[in-house]
Amino acid sequence: MLGVLAAVAGRNPRFPRGYGRPYTLSFPHHLSAHRARNAIQLENMKLFSVRAFIFDIDGTLVDSNELHVDSWDQAFRRFGKQFSREQLRAQIGKGSDQYLPEFLTPEEIKRFGKELDEYRSELFRKEYLPQVRPFPKVHELFKRIHDDNKRIVLASSGKKRDTKYYIDLLKIGDLINGYISGDDADRSKPAPDIFAASLEKLGDISPADAVTLGDTKFDVEAAKKAGVKTIAFLCGGTSESVLRQAGAIAIYRDPADFLAHYNDRCV
After folding, report:
1. Chain-centroid distance, C-alpha 219
2. Distance between CA atoms of 81 and 267, rounded to whole angstroms?
3. In terms of domains, do 53 and 163 share one?
């Protein structure tokens, strides 16, 4: 049974329809309220044994997804290609190795794919990265997990240089056990490589003892292939229904919402 908790105040136009409204848990009509509560408790119990959290970054810890859309749009236009923002946004969460084939032919990738990717990366770093802001309570959430003697690894499809920037921006360098970027894996999400590498970095942590936290269906799909369950956040802009369908075990508004319920779910 999916545990979906979100008591939301305010609304951001970037967030999906329905963001900002309270979410309710729904159960089949034949379940009594008592049995429904038991179902929630069983889901919560699964989180008590979690020994490590593997966090995505873009759209999960920092408000950057629309800035990535902006940079991809500008980069494609420079190379004579144009796509709608909806098309570009739908693939956010993938690294460039998985992103470019959604828009370019194999011949185009061979001819100018590397140049486009390098241009886009530098463009994002110079013009858009300084605009990225953390979501509320990320540092507090990481400190709470750290104080609970649980491990944290960051797992991003982004570039290593950008990942290091985010660690400094969030001021979490002393609270994490390491990070994996798209540069450290052969394939980015939705392939499982980044999460598999994250598990290796965690050492003696099995997939059953870890949980990933992400904001796109690609996070959920990649984690599932690596044998890890995913808690999803809405703050990246993906709708609750898409995250549910992908297989998220629980859905929260953002890091602050997860922190607010952390003691109830993970202690």
Report:
1. 6
2. 50
3. yes
Query: Which residue, 1, 8, 54, is CA-closest to 28?
Result: 1
- Name the 3-class secondary structure at 179: strand
Residue 45, judged by CB atoms within 10 A of its CB (0-12, 13-18, 19+), counts as: exposed
Q: How far apart are CA 247 and CA 223, in angstroms?
A: 10
Q: By residue range, what is the domain housing residue 165?
A: 3-37+46-63+134-266
Residues 153 and 231 in one domain: yes
**Residues 70, 50 share a domain:** no
Q: What is the phi-psi region of residue 18: left when phi exceeds 0, alpha when psi lies from -120 to 50, beta otherwise?
A: left
Distance of alpha carbon 116 from alpha carbon 122, whole angstroms = 10
Query: What's this model's pTM, rounded to 2 decimal places?
Result: 0.83
Pairing of strands 62-63, 133-134: antiparallel
- Tokens 């998985």 belong to which residue? 98
- Are 119 and 212 a contacting pair, CB within 8 Å? no
What tens digit of pLDDT does each residue of 194-227 get? 999 999 999 899 999 999 999 999 999 999 999 9
pLDDT-flagged residues of the chain (< 70): 1-47, 265-267
